[in-house]
Amino acid sequence: MKIIHKVKLTIADGPIVVQIPKGAEILSIQMQKGVPCIWYICNIEEHEIERRTFLCIGTGESFYHSKMKYINTVQDGPYVWHFFERTQ
User: What pLDDT is attached to residue 14?
Assistant: First the structure.
């Protein structure tokens, strides 16, 4: 059986690390009430936790794209943020 959960994120210049169940599938990152949130689906019986690393890149910022998977773009007033997950 699967379940969908949400974790609140922060807009940060550096890596954003979250702890979620092992093997969780990232569904989306969107703004909810002015706060960026990540939604993921996981096995309800998975109790092992893993650390996953995300990056928030603003439009016009330079960055290294290698070993990163694009997740979603969100808008926050005049700002546009692009979220990536760091891959192994």
Answer: 83
Euclidean distance between CA atoms 68 and 70, whole angstroms: 7
Q: Which residues pair with 46 in a beta bridge?
A: none
Asked if the model's pLDDT at residue 57 lies above 80, the reply is yes
DSSP string, 33-88: TTEEEEEEEEETT---EEEEEEEEEETT-----TTEEEEEEEEETTEEEEEEEE--
In the chain, the number of structural domains is 1
Domain extent at residue 41: 2-86
Token pair listed for 37:
């949130």
Q: Work out the average pLDDT over 35-53.
A: 95
